[in-house]
Amino acid sequence: MRVSPDETVFWEYGVVKLNATLVYTWIVMAILVVGAYWATRRLSVDERRSRWQSALEIIVITTLGQIREIGLDRPEKYLGFLGTIFLFVAVSALLTVVPIYEPPTASLSTTVALALTVFVMIPGYGIKDRGLMGYLQSYVEPTVVMLPFNIIGEIARTIALAVRLFGNMMSGGMIVGVLLTLTPLFFPAIMTAFGLLTGVVQAYIFSVLAGVYIAAAVRSHS
Q: Most exposed residue of 1, 3, 95, 141, measured as fewest CB within 10 angstroms of its CB?
């Protein structure tokens, strides 16, 4: 049983490899781009809205509400980043109903990349709100002795985000694979549905944690 989609190589030339992680990542990205275009190509402000637009509005309004509950006063400012993370992880999980598909989030390289974007955006939002010196000041609070511990905390938080998502997505896929081998009838179908729910929950948790970390960085300079 393959542990990671990195092990599935479609094309290789020297040190250059085109593996399942890259292919399915681009597929998920294409689905999100096409879906966004399809939902927004004929936007309407009256009562006659397409199902695509209604679904998109539900996602956007719900996401804005969750961002506001985290503690970020201007949720529209963070909607693009946090909403994209949630949709990417959620769609990656939902596509597991396709037999040949392997979620790119089951690869540690993908989860590390997602965690690194959070790692970069946390100081990015903090610096944008309070300036460079205002943000850096938080690393020496309450005393300068805390500087190395705060830096280590930032790095450990990023690693925890990556490993958490990778472990949950990988273990879910392996469990379904084992059950399909042992009992290839109704029980695996139930577990697959449970796995889809788990994937969406993990997308929610990952994006909420990213929002919480951003909110903590912004509030710490206020």
A: 1
Q: Indicate if the pLDDT at residue 214 is higher than 50.
A: yes
Tokens 């002795």 locate to 145
Rounded Cα gap, residues 96 and 149, in angstroms: 40
Q: Residue 33 is part of which domain span?
A: 5-219
As a whole number of Å, the CA-based R_g of the chain is 20
* Residue 37 CB-half CA count within 13 A: 6
Distance CA 155, CA 94 (A): 30
Domain count, the chain: 1
Instruction: Residue 103: count other Cβ atoms within 10 Å of its Cβ.
Output: 26
Task: Find out whether 28 and 96 touch, Cβ atoms under 8 Å.
Answer: no
